[in-house]
Amino acid sequence: MRTKGKVKFYNAEKKFGFIQVEGETKDIHFGPDSFRGDPPSIGDEVEFEIMEEPRGPHAKKMQVISGGDPTIIPPQSHAKSFHQNERKLFLPTDTQSVFDWDSIDNFSLKLNKAAPYFADEPAGFKFFKMDKKGNKLIEILPKYTEKIIEVILKRFLMSVKALNLEVKDQIFIPDWRLIVGLGTDSVYETGITLHHIYGFPYIPGQAIKGVLRSWIINGFFHQNEGNKKEGAYSDKLFCDIFGCPSDSAYKEARQGKVWFFDALPANTPTIEVDVMNPHYSKYYGGDKPPADYLDPVPIPFLTVSKETGFCFLIGVSKKQELSFKVSSYKTSPIVKYLEKEGGVKVDSSLLDISMTLLKDALKEQGVGAKSAVGYGYFEQVL
What we know:
The chain has 382 residues and is an alpha+beta fold. It has three domains: 2-66, CATH 2.40.50.140; 84-139, no CATH class; 146-380, no CATH class. The chain contains nine helices and 18 strands. The protein has helices spanning 93-96, 107-113, 146-161, 205-220, 236-242, 281-284, 318-323, 333-341, 350-364, and strands at residues 2-11, 16-20, 28-30, 45-53, 56-66, 87-89, 116-118, 128-130, 136-139, 165-174, 243-244, 254-255, 258-260, 264-265, 271-276, 299-304, 310-317, 378-380. The protein has a five-stranded antiparallel beta sheet with strand order 3-2-1-4-5, with no helix packed on it. Strands 10, 13, 14, 17 and 18 form a five-stranded antiparallel beta sheet that branches. Strands 6-7 form a two-stranded antiparallel ribbon. The protein starts with a strand and ends with a strand. The relative contact order is 0.12.
């Protein structure tokens, strides 16, 4: 009779491991004679036959039936084995007793709430580590499924449209990599913005609004927010999109008419590890002057790959959309820019104008950290 279980541990150097079977107190041993081809990975669901041997139950005729959950990759033959017993979790004992770390499928929870701690590591908490030969010793990455992403995005779009808004959505993809939330609080040295419920990367609506607002102020109003006489606040179209204080063109405080929603992944997101390599960490810390004898300190951080599309969504109330007329803003530098670029027509709506501006801002200014070195720029998916 064949049995199903999950690979709990595998030592690539000694070529053996253990399978955890639900409802069983004793793990099943497996070795090189248990499978053909490449060895299974930690977290893989496998099917096998159990043979009773003098040392205990042993697996035979193993087959991987589904890929593993995001986990620590098995150690290379020359690397130290990071067995589960060497990994500590700073969670209540009763919590640890009822769940298996390897089976956590929410990447946000796994990375941040159940952060693995290695006592023999200088920084303690690690999600990635390589040896000097480039072999990965530790790597925690997610495994999302296309179907779940599709269902979540569809439900989100339906929820927004139920708000009695006129909405416009557009998919954009990074032209390289994207970094969101690099400086967020984390037990690691770097962070990433992950949805607290679904665990996938997303771009908060306030960040999208901030990027567009900053791009318009810098590009059309000489980096000047201004007041009712000059700068961005003296422009009624700017005030209608983003809102304004009392010292503005409308001479009263107003909310913006455009709603900026979170940008969720439009397809299965891919998380990739990147590395920054500051050479003068002791200089930055204030201890020593910058010099060639200081050693670089590689710091890993998580990025979203360029294959990941995001659905950007904005909305305007139906009443305000119907009352909008481009002709009321002829003197606006924003409208003049759009006319020059061919992005505005007589019947253009506030949504059309806002999405056109957002497209240009994503292309020219980008979103997230390290845009000065090429991260975070987007291209529209036609």
